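Sanity check

After download, print the first record. It should look like this:
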Amino acid sequence: MTGVPASATGGTGTPAPGGGKLGAAAVDQASLWNIANILTMVRLLLVPGFVMLMLTDGGYDPAWRAWAWAAFAVAMITDIFDGHLARTYNLVTDFGKIADPIADKAIMGAALICLSSLGDLPWWVTGVILGRELGITLLRFLVIRYGVIPASRGGKMKTLAQGTAVGMYVLALTGPLASFRFWVMAVAVALTVVTGLDYVRQAVVLRRAGLAEVAVAAAESQAALAQAAVAQTTVAAQLPEAAGGTEASVEMPAAEEPSVQAPTAQAPSAQGSTAASSEAAEK
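Expected C-alpha cells:
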C-alpha cells in the first residue's frame, strides 16, 4: 500500500517524466491511503453518526441507543486495529499520528457529553475523563523535546475500562446490569486518575533527565572552549620566544665577521715584507 504506484512511475518502473519532486509528491499522497489511515477516517466519520443516533427521539429510545452502541463499538474496534496495522506493516504517516488521537478523543468525548446531557452520567465524570485525556495530550507535546512518554499497560487498561463502561451506559440497560455498569465506570474513573498521575510523574522524570543531559552537554562545550582558549594562549606566548631565538641565530655570524675578514686586511703587509726581503737579496 505504501509502495510507488504505477501512475507515479509511468507504469514501467522508471521515474515519471515530471521529475523527482513530482514523483515524491505522488508517493507521499498515495501513502496516505493505507488501511490504517482509512480506519482512522472511518472512526472520524462515525462521530457525527453516533451523536445523531444517540439523540434521536430524545435520546431514550432503546432501539436507537442500540444502533448508537453499534457505532461506538465499531469506532472502538477500529481504534484497536488501526494502530496495530500501522506499526506492523510500517504504515505510520504524519496524518495518522495527528488524526488517530483526535479520532480517539472525538468518539469518547462525544459519547460522554451525550450521556451527561441526557442525565445518564454525572458531568463531573465527563470532566475528569476529558480533562485527563486533554491534559495528558498537552503534556506529551510539552515534553516531546526531551523524549516520548510511552503508552503504559495501565493506560491500555484504562482505555479498555472506559470503552466498556461508556458502551454499557450507551445501551439502555435495566436491572442488575444497570447497577453493574456503575462499578465498571468507577473502575474506569479510578484508572483514569491513577494513570494520569503516573504520566505526570513520567513527564517530570523525562524533563529532569533531558535538562541534565543539556547541562552536561553545555558543561562539555564550555570545557572544550576553555581548552581551546588555553591552547591558543600557549601558542601565542611561544611565538615571540621562537622569533627571538631565530634572530639570535641569524645575528651570530655578523658578530664574527670581523675576525673572519682580519686575515684579508693583513695580506698587504705580508706581501710588503716579502717584497722588501727580495729587494734586499737583490741588493
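If your output differs, re-run the checksum step. Summary of this record's structure: Residues 146 and 206 are 6 Å apart (CA to CA).
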